Amino acid sequence: MRPSRFIVVASSLLLLLHAYIGVRLLPDLPLGTVGRGLGVLALVLSCVLMPLGLMARGIERQPLADRLAWAGLLLMGVFSSLLVLTLLRDIVLGIAALALPAAELPPLVRDSALAVPLLAGLVSLVGLVNARRRARVVEVEVPLAGLPPALDGFTIAQISDIHVGPTIKRGYLEAIVTAVNGLEADMVAVTGDLVDGSVEQLAPHTAPLSRLTARHGAYFVTGNHEYYSGAAAWVEELRRLGLRVLENEHVVLCHGEAELVVAGVTDYGAHHFDPAQRSDPHAALEGAPEAAGARILLAHQPRSAPAAAAAGFDLQLSGHTHGGQFWPWNLFVRLQQPYTAGLHRLDALWVYTSRGTGYWGPPKRFGAPSEITLVRLVAAREASR
After folding, report:
1. What is the pLDDT of residue 63?
2. Which of 81, 169, 170, 331, CA to CA, is 20 to 30 A from 309?
3. Coiled-coil annotation: which residues (predicted)?
4. Rounded to an integer, what distance in angstroms lies between the CA atom of residue 353 and that of residue 264?
5. Under CATH, what is the fold of the domain 136-384?
6. Residues spanned by CATH 3.60.21.10 within the chain?
7. In the chain, what are the helix, strand and coil shares in percent, each to the nearest 5?
């Protein structure tokens, strides 16, 4: 679909969905003429500002660009909840019309119309607080069969999907870096979607990454949003900041008397931007020592797991899904990805999917809290093999 046609279709759909909310709610709200007029105005502003919020990073003037982004993205979060709750209300009213006497319907119609915007506002407010506070630390133990004693207890601090951009700036990232350093992990893994914008726009805001410290250093793999933002330039910038970027390659870490292979692949869809960047777990492991105590893959998207399992990895660390970020979209992640969040097993491979350390789009997290993950490798007992 041509870009101009896509914009027309998307704008028309957005207008229709706003009209649906207005038609289904405003007549049933006890607002009066002025109140309904303000309701229509609010829906019109939402319809206009939402696309502007998504496109604001293309505006050079500051702080206008960031203010438009904040307004549009906040409204996107409210609109999402309004739409879902309006649809659910219509389903409930349809069932009630079949099950209740006609005389009992008017109060339900009025009260449910009031409940929808109130609930949407409350969910959006709670979601905003959850999104803007520093991600909590989640500790995860991964039992690996045959893990050498020297690697038993090896820790990895994983951060993912921060999305530094219009609403996430330097201060937000500084708090994350400070928390990660406080964990004193053996290594740090940054599993993609760090940025939403160019190096020129965001370099001052990603600078805190240079403070990441760990015994074996910090490693990065690209996510799909790096390719939207100029992946080659970001790879160069992150290397300048001291991160080791793994592009279908691996490093061997000597930890005590054991060796640990840490590999990384480009994003699952990287080949759509550059055929030479196709994600390849097999290539990432090529030449790795057979006697390594464990093989870990950093791969932005969970759907790299089948190839990782076939290549012989023991653990894959991923992100991308945000855990769905906020209800009900977490219910639909499985349509694209095999795992939404948490630790799962695929044959002999463990896959941990982070809910993300920041957020994308609406500053809203509801039912899918952000996380800084502390992964600890532990020796599996015989019975769990």
Report:
1. 86
2. 331
3. none
4. 15
5. Purple Acid Phosphatase; chain A, domain 2 (3.60.21)
6. 136-384
7. 50, 20, 30
- AA identity, residue 229: S
Residue 38 to residue 98: CA distance in whole angstroms: 33
- Whether 372 contacts 357, CB under 8 Å: yes
Q: Give the alpha-carbon dihedral of 363, 369, 370, 375, to 10 degrees.
A: -170
**Residue 328 preceded by cis peptide, ω within 30:** yes
Residue 266, phi then psi, degrees to nearest 5: -65, 165
Q: Pairing mode, if any, of strands 258-264 and 249-255?
A: antiparallel
> What would the pLDDT profile of 104-133 be if each residue is shown by its tens digit?
899 999 999 999 999 999 999 999 999 999
Low-confidence ranges of the chain (pLDDT < 50): 383-385
- Which residues are registered as beta bridge partners of 139? 374
Instruction: Determine how many CB atoms are found less than 10 A away from the CB of residue 7.
Output: 13
CA distance 351 to 297: 9
pLDDT computed for residue 7 by the predictor: 79
Q: How many residues does the chain have?
A: 385
pLDDT digits (tens, 9 = 90+) for 210-253: 999 999 999 999 999 999 999 999 999 999 999 999 999 999 99
Encoded tokens for 101: 């006497």
The DSSP-derived string for 278-317 is ---HHHHHTT--TT-SEEEEE-SSGGGHHHHHHHT-SEEE
At 197, is the secondary structure helix, strand, or coil? coil
And the tokens for 210? 């240079």
For the record, the structure tokens of 384 come out as: 């769990």
Q: Are 371 and 357 in contact (CB under 8 A)?
A: yes
| Strand, helix or coil for residue 110 | helix
The Cα 187–Cα 49 span in angstroms is 42
Q: What is the DSSP string of 112-160?
A: HHHHHHHHHHHHHHHHHHHHHSPPEEEEEEEEETT--GGGTT-EEEEE-
How far apart are alpha carbons 199 and 206 in whole angstroms?
9
Burial group, residue 142, by CB count within 10 angstroms (0-12, 13-18, 19+) = buried
Are 225 and 231 in contact, with CB atoms under 8 Å apart? no
Token pair in block for residue 268 = 């699952």
User: What pLDDT is attached to residue 3?
Assistant: 65
